[in-house]
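Input chain follows. Return structure tokens only.
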Amino acid sequence: MLDTIKELRDGNHLAFEQLFDNSYEALCRYAYSILRDMDDAEDVVQKVFCKLWDQREELNIQSSVNSYLYRIVHNDSLNNIHQKTSHQEHNLNYVSMMNADVNSTIEHIESSDLQKAIDNALATLPPQCKKVFEMSRIEQLSYSEIAAQLNISTNTVENHISKALKLLRIELKEFLSICLLLQLLKL
């Protein structure tokens, strides 16, 4: 073993090739047992041998060359898993962030379109009916409070609210269908 290390340090291509030929398949099987992907296993082993050759002059192997190679393959396989996991987490975070941005944009568009549609629908209401509806829905006043403020009966308030809701349903029919469809798609 010491001869192999010395030959590697000296740049002996034949010693390197022999080590590669004798160890490659077994190291690939070992890396595969960790990674469960033969392409990744072969990549790891090839990189280990490249690193071994590139750093041959500084080699300071205290154990056998084989145990040294297995240890490096083991560590590099774990690093490979860590990198893939980090990359996948990063991608998931990115996708999640993009979905949040898209959902936020859609919600903003929906809410501004909805507000415009409501404003347009309210504009079609007769003035007294519109006033009663806004007092009920926007100012959150009770029917009796509205009746007292406008000096009308609660029956009249109920009729105005009923008329307003009927008109709004008709005016917002298409918009509400789209909103309902979008809500269903989000589920």
